[in-house]
């Protein structure tokens, strides 16, 4: 309802100038009757007649009655809904002139009729009834027309849109209801076409997860507050999550278009203040993933929203929610998704801290899954899917480290933290990690020797492939101690390949790491079994890779024996060189033993002579 204080009346001696409005239609009906009242709306004056106004408008009737006289000739209506243009349409209705009610003026006319109290008490089919009939029979039956009316209310009536029940509830509920109807019609038509579909396919059709609605583009014209109300109403009505996600993606694309890092750094004040509110609101509207393995929210969209949230300075809760959703599917992330630009000046080129938090959430999720799988009531020995996810993430992080390693502003602390956060069993081979470390040390030549050794210690030499070992043996940035270890491992591998054994020098040590003691507590026994299970999985993966290497070596040996002349001599020469290297290491060891035995013999002789 409109407050009485918004209407004020006053007496003026000088008549107001007759506007063009009055000459256009008032003199047609009352050609012989001069106007007896002037109404001022937003600085625009209207010379009118009291009789048609007090007949249809309860507000003007009360105003004239309270004036206690017939000399009231000037009135001013303050805060009139829709301004003087809407008042002109209302006056046309009072004078019986024809005009068209459309989706662009029905909301303004309805608010003006409520303001003027043009109810059925004064005349049947008054303006309130006419606009209400148009809304019920025309607007609310169409999703597109309901969106047009709601968007018009946002532009024309920003101060009273929430006060009008028809606008605040009717349009929103009509949009949601029409969306449900569209989904039901589409589902039934597809079920008729696919009578032989399976149960799972029928369930997807019923829930609306296998089709995208056509109306998602229409909702992008709404303000974020109205859009939020519409989406919440759709969720209550049961609109499919696939359509909801499509609407959120299209709205984000249309409302956040053109925002980039260069624009943010050059002129951050040019960005609208409500854009961060848009990101936060869209994140709260994301459907809950009932099954994280089959989520319908694209990862590219989640990463795009995360980058926008960081760039626009969204709330911490918004960013943490996006990071949580991404970490649930970390094994599906691509390298391009992780390359999040940093918005802080003077910092590294990429946001390494965000990637570190993603890994923390991912490892926490893996730990929770393993705890459930290793429960005392479980018959299995763990989740193979969890270990496979770890291996995928390990390869992804190694590629990410190699990509960000050339950054001159990347600190050693952050680089090492990304390496150490993953457990040892997340990497079957360290070739990718070796490449990343080598690139980082090449780009950061000013590091101290202690820092260089600290980085190289993160690599396990026994987890390097033959190609990586050959490269490390000739790499001048690799410390001498590591070069010796690599050469020793190469000799052992060559010796084992010649003898025909599998030759994993770490296999026996890992398996014999200790059997759980009977004196251990059940929790410690359970933790020990988990560690052994992880080690066994890692060793199986290594054995498979080693087997493939041996098969390649066998093919090379066969090819060398088949070749003629010099090729065969070269092949046997390479074998002899390898045997010579083994002899060199073994000879040095025997010479040390002989020297030590000589010293002990001399000391014993001295002791006997004394």
TrEMBL record:
Gene3D superfamilies: Potassium Channel Kv1.1, Chain A (3.30.710.10). One of its GO terms (biological process) is protein ubiquitination. SUPFAM superfamilies: POZ domain. Residues 526-553 form a coiled coil. The keyword Transcription regulation does not apply. Residues 595-610 have a biased composition (Basic residues). It holds the Pfam family BTB. InterPro entries: BTB/POZ_dom, NPH3/RPT2-like, NPH3_dom, SKP1/BTB/POZ_sf. Residues 213-493 form the NPH3 domain. It is a peripheral membrane protein. Residues 35-103 form the BTB domain. Pathway: Protein modification; protein ubiquitination. Keywords: Coiled coil, Ubl conjugation pathway. Residues 586-610 are annotated as: Disordered. GO terms for cellular component: endomembrane system. It is found in: Endomembrane system. PANTHER family: OS12G0117600 PROTEIN. Belongs to the NPH3 family. This is Putative SKP1/BTB/POZ domain, NPH3 domain-containing protein. It comes from Lupinus albus.
């Amino acid at each position: 309802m409109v407050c009485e204080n918004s209407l004020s009346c006053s007496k003026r001696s000088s008549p107001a100038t007759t506007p063009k409005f009055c000459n256009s239609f008032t003199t047609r009906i009352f050609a012989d009757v001069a106007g007896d009242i002037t109404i001022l709306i937003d600085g625009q004056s209207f010379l009118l007649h009291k009789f048609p106004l007090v007949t249809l408008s309860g507000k003007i009737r009360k105003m004239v009655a309270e004036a206690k006289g017939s000399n009231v000739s000037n009135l001013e209506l303050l805060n009139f809904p829709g301004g003087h243009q809407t008042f002109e349409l209302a006056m046309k209705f009072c004078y019986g002139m024809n005009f068209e009610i459309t989706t662009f003026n029905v909301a303004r006319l309805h608010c003006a009729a409520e303001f003027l109290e043009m109810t059925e008490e004064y005349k049947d089919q008054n303006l309130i009834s006419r606009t209400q009939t148009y809304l019920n029979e025309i607007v609310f039956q169409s999703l597109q027309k309901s969106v047009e009316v709601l968007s018009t209310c946002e532009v024309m009536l920003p101060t009273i849109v929430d006060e009008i029940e028809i606008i605040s509830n009717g349009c929103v509920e009509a949009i949601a209801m029409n969306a449900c109807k569209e989904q039901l019609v589409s589902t039934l038509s597809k079920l008729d076409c696919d009578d032989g579909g399976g149960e799972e396919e029928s369930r997807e059709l019923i829930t609306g997860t296998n089709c995208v609605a056509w109306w998602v583009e229409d909702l992008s014209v709404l303000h974020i507050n109205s859009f939020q109300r519409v989406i919440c109403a759709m969720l209550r009505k049961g609109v499919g999550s696939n359509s909801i996600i499509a609407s959120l993606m299209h709205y984000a694309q249309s409302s956040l278009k053109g925002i980039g890092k260069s624009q943010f750094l050059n002129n951050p004040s040019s960005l609208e203040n409500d854009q961060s509110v848009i990101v936060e609101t869209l994140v709260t509207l994301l459907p809950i993933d009932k099954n994280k393995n089959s989520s319908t929210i694209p990862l590219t969209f989640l990463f795009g929203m995360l980058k926008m949230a960081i760039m626009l300075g969204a709330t911490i809760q918004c960013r943490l929610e996006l990071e949580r959703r991404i970490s649930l599917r970390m094994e599906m992330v691509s390298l391009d998704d992780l390359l999040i630009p940093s918005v802080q000046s003077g910092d590294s080129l990429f946001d390494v801290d965000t990637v570190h938090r993603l890994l923390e959430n991912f490892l926490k999720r893996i730990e929770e899954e393993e705890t459930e799988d290793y429960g005392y009531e479980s018959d299995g020995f763990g989740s193979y899917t969890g270990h496979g996810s770890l291996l995928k993430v390990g390869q992804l992080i190694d590629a990410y480290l190699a990509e960000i390693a050339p950054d001159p502003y990347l600190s050693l602390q952050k680089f090492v933290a990304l390496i150490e956060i993953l457990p040892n069993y997340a990497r079957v081979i360290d070739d990718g990690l070796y490449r990343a470390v080598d690139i980082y040390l090449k780009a950061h030549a000013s590091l101290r020797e202690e820092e260089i050794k600290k980085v190289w210690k993160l690599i396990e030499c026994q987890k390097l492939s033959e190609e990586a070992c050959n490269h490390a043996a000739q790499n001048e940035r690799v410390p001498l101690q590591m070069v010796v270890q690599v050469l020793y491992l190469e000799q052992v591998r060559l010796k084992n390949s010649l003898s025909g054994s599998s030759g994993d020098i770490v296999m026996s040590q890992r398996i014999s790491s200790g059997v759980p003691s009977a004196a251990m507590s059940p929790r410690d026994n359970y933790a020990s079994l988990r560690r052994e299970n992880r080690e066994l999985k890692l060793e199986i993966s290594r054995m498979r890779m080693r087997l493939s290497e041996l098969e390649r070596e066998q093919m090379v040996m066969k090819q060398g024996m088949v070749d003629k002349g010099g090729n065969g001599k070269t092949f046997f020469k390479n074998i002899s060189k390898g045997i010579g290297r083994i002899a060199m290491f073994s000879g040095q060891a025997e010479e040390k033993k002989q020297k030590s035995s000589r010293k002990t013999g001399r000391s014993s002789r001295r002791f006997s002579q004394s």
